[in-house]
């Protein structure tokens, strides 16, 4: 049992990262309204700023933290991150201004960049034949965390707006103490390497794009699709409150349903569907489904339909693995590593851009006196992006049969 304690610690760390990222979504509108006293549309703009600040820190510090763990070992990086994260949640729990909230999200984004270090630790302690299974456990922990985060946040916020952050801080602190007691260092000193600024540059992977000529159009599809899909975490809490008068608890539950639907779709449907229809048809079908759902979200007024559409929208998650499969097949065998590095950077860039674009769109069309009142406008924008993705992918297919 003691031999498995480090694995339990890593899984708990990833789970806490996922919960911490998700718990703020349902409580965000009330929290920003509380500290700013502004309207919901203005609060949404600040929500985009907070989300972008979090994403920027992940993008910038992901490779830096990874390089630090290669230099100093995994344990000090992970334990330090958990203790700092505990302090950060306390800051957010007592924050009385939007600037203190922004500082909290920036610190949280920096600490969440330890995902790569946790994965490296798992690789260090896993036998070669067990690595795929253990990486699957890590991925599942992150998915469960994202699904549970909004539910926990929604339930605790019914007690107090700040309660989710106190609980998340206590979890991070407890896990840090647990890791300090049971976690051995996995990287021997003779396998460590000096810190490298070049390897720590978050933009370095983009240098490989020119070498991936055969998939450049697909990389554009991947980026646009990621920006479109991020409409859910970017504006869902604000949209649900404005359009359907959802409570914090209901917002958390809808996000939970979405997360579970997405997880089940990826775990159960992707393999059989791709095997039956191929990755291209699978990606096209998933995008058409997302297009229909986005248009429906933009204009529906009945709240009961939301639950059906949220559950259905998780099926659209089959697009991403199908699209990655298309790109992997189109790239040369010696370009696979470059491709995955570029995809990671593109996804990070999309999570930086999308919150600002989506929340500004929501604010413009939901503010008092708007020429066209349409809280679902971000979903209209996302549907247009999906149309662009379909057109580019169809054109790429015509020229690459």
Can you walk through the features of this model?
The radius of gyration is 21 Å and the shape is globular. It is built from 14 helices and no strands. The chain has helices spanning 5-36, 40-72, 74-94, 98-112, 115-125, 131-157, 163-182, 216-229, 231-244, 248-299, 303-313, 319-330, 336-366, 377-399. The chain folds into 2 domains: 1-183, Growth Hormone, Chain: A, CATH 1.20.1250.20; 209-401, MFS general substrate transporter like domains (Growth Hormone, Chain: A). Helix 2 (40-72) packs antiparallel against helix 3 and helix 2 (40-72) runs antiparallel to helix 13 (336-366). By secondary structure, it is mainly alpha-helical. The protein starts with a helix and ends with a helix.
Give the ordered list of helices and strands: HHHHHHHHHHHHHH
Helix tally?
A: 14
- Unreliable runs, pLDDT <50, ≥5 residues? none
- Structural class of the secondary structure composition? mainly alpha
Structural shape: globular
Alpha carbon gap, first and last residue: 53 Å
**Count of separate structural domains:** 2
- The CATH superfamily of the largest domain turns out to be MFS general substrate transporter like domains
> Could you say what the CATH architecture of the largest domain is?
Up-down Bundle
Radius of gyration: 21 Å
Return the CATH topology of the largest domain. Answer: Growth Hormone, Chain: A
Bin the helical content. over 70%
Strand content: under 5%
Query: What is the strand tally?
Result: 0
Task: Let me know the largest β-sheet.
Answer: none
Can you identify the CATH class of the largest domain? Mainly Alpha
Mean pLDDT: 80
